[in-house]
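Let us work through a complete example step by step.
Step 1: write down the sequence.
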Amino acid sequence: MFEAFTVATFRPRLGETFRLGLPGEAQVVDLVLIEATDLSQRPGGGREGDRPRAPFSLVFRDPGGRHLPQRIYHLEHADLGAFDLFLVPIGPDAQGMRYEAVFA
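Step 2: predict the structure and record it as tokens.
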């Protein structure tokens, strides 16, 4: 399923919550998907025919403002199910800490 993800998988999910499980803890963090960006038209992004899927990025926000380190996290979504993503903190905005995942 993870291999089938594209930017089109996530664009309809903007504003929706993804649950992030913290390793070794019972606590979960709710992240909100705030951006789904097609990267294929950016310099170095390549053309769609060059790759199995066009590259894209996702940006999530933690309204609680936690600063989690970059690493692979287990996420769950009501419709998409469970999957692992490598998330990188990209800094806070006025509404919380933001994290990015890039699919190449």
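Step 3: interpret the result. Residues 2-103 form one domain.
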